[in-house]
Every structure is written in C-alpha cells, then in structure tokens.
Amino acid sequence: MTEQRPIPVFKQDPILVLILGFVTCGLYLIYWNIKMAEVLNAVAGKQQISPVVSVIAGCCYPVNIYFYYLVGDVMTPLGLLIGKPELKEKSTLLLILGIFVPMVAAMIVQGHVNEIYEKKAA
Amino acid sequence: MPDGPKDGHFIRNRTLVILVSAAVFVGAWFYAPCVDRGPVVCPLHGLVGIPCPGCGLTHAFCDLVNGRLSAAAAHNAMSFLLAALFAAALPVAAVELARRKPFAFYRFLYSTRMAWGLAGVVVVYYLGHFVVLIASGRLMTDYVMTSWTWPILHRIFS
Q1: Mean pLDDT of A94-104
Q2: How far apart are CA A120 and CA A93, in angstroms?
Q3: A11: closest CA among A120, A121, A115, A122?
Q4: How many CB pairs under 8 A join A and B?
C-alpha cells in the first residue's frame, strides 16, 4: 500500500554522523536510525522500515543487517527522487557496510538523503 | 501499513526475518564454546575501549541458549527483550509466509512514539549498565584491556 506523505527534513553532515556516533558511544545512531526510518518510509511511500526495529538495529548486529537490507530496498525510489537511478546498485554495498562498518553505511545513506533537500532548494 | 502479500518484497522480507531469527539462536549455540576467544567486532569497543549499547549481546545470547540467565543479564540484560522478540518473530513470520498475509497485531512496531519510548529505555539501561561496569572494574578488564588499541597504548606508556 502506498501513501503520499511529505518527506521529513533530516539534513545532517555525513561526517557529523560518524563523529556523533563515536562521541555518544553509538547512542546517536539509534536516534539516526529512527529519523532515517521516517525519511525513507516517506520516500518509499509505505511503511518499509519499522521505527521500533530501527531502534533495535542500533543495538543488535543481525537486526542491523536486516535494517540495511530494508534501506537498500528504498535506494530505488530514492535514486529516482534525486535523479540518480543507478543508486539501486548500492543496495548490496550498504548491506555489506552495514555488517562491518555501520557508521560508514549511515554516512552514505545520509549523503544521498541530503541530496533530496539540496535538489528541492536548487 | 507494513508490506502486503502483493508486495514483491513480502516473501523475501519474511524469509529474511526467519533466517535472521533462527541464525541468532543457532549461531549462539554453536559459538558458545569459543565466545571468550572471539574477536572484538564493535568499532567503538575496538578503538576506544568503551562499550556501545549492543556490546555484550553475543556473550549474553551464548549464555541464554545455555540457560545461564544471570550471566546473560550481567553481559547485557537487553538480551532478554531481544531473545523474546526473535523467538516471537520466527513463528509469526513463518505463519505469515505460509498464509501469504501479514498479521495486524504487531502494528505497534510501526509506531514512532513506541520507537522513541524504546530508545529512551535503551539509553537509560545503557547509562546504568555503564555505571555498573565502572563501579565493578569490568570496564577496564572487559573493554579497555580487550580493545584493539590497548596493546599499542600499553607499549607506549609502559
């Protein structure tokens, strides 16, 4: 089922995501996961990522893999939205980075989400 | 609304839920004998020697599947909540897959308010657990001294 909803604004410097992730001992990534679930659900037009699951993903590696699998699925509509249809090819990369270095995967996703607002502002 | 059966991702999604949930318990069972010799995989623990909210869950799940409940609680008490969630997710996803239709009773998982509440619980638990680790001296023995950077720092400053 699809729903047309305005995309919530969550613009953040990707480097800041990495720094805050470390400085807050990973707690910031739980906040980031919830906010990103809101944004990506709006981009997908459906409840693709459960916000509750996104909190658990911030604490548990296997769930984090599942979270980035769901994020990878939203790369297709996100790519279409920002005019980069090739973005769907990053799904596997995100899944692998989500397993080994979740903070880097978060930076990549944040960078592409920022492009939504930059495109709107242009 | 969660994914529906007409969604192309439904089967893949539920299959992944089943696999991840089963892998957590099966993996913990097989990994339990060598968990104390396992590598540090958390970047925060490895680089800084400080636990993240999920640190200790591997030990805790290995303890849980072997019935050592107090040891599991000492490593990370959130493992009880997560184990209950995984144990519930597996049959629910299997039945959904069989009937090709999602249940409605877990829609609360799609509530942002519920997510913020859970995040609050995680933060409070983490801070409390951190204080306990400092007070018991386990922060030093279990995290700082097992970090990737400890041998380097130890060599420089000793």
Answers
A1: 86
A2: 27
A3: A115
A4: 97
Residue of A40, A28, A88 lying closest to A67 (CA atoms): A40
How would DSSP label each residue in B125-155?
HHHHHHHHHHHHTHIIIIIGGGSSSHHHHHH
Q: Is the Cβ pair B111, A51 closer than 8 Å?
A: yes
Of B17, B44, B110, the CB nearest to A26: B44
Cβ of A25 under 8 Å from any chain B Cβ? yes
- The DSSP letter of residue A59 is T
Say if residue A32's pLDDT is above 90: yes
Q: Which amino acid is at B85?
A: L
User: Which residues, 6 or more positions from B5, have their beta carbon under 8 angstroms from its beta carbon?
Assistant: B100, B101, B102
What's the confidence (pLDDT) of residue B53? 92
- Quote the tokens at residue B118: 């859970």
Indicate yes or no: CB of A52 within 8 angstroms of CB of B53. Answer: no
- What are the CA-CA distances from residue B34 to residues B27, B28, B37, B62, B74 (Å)? 12, 10, 5, 10, 18
Global pTM reads 0.87
Joined tokens for residue B4: 């529906």
Task: Tally Cβ neighbours within 10 Å of residue B86.
Answer: 22
In angstroms, the separation between the Cα of residue A112 and the nearest Cα of chain B is: 23
Strands (E), chain A: none
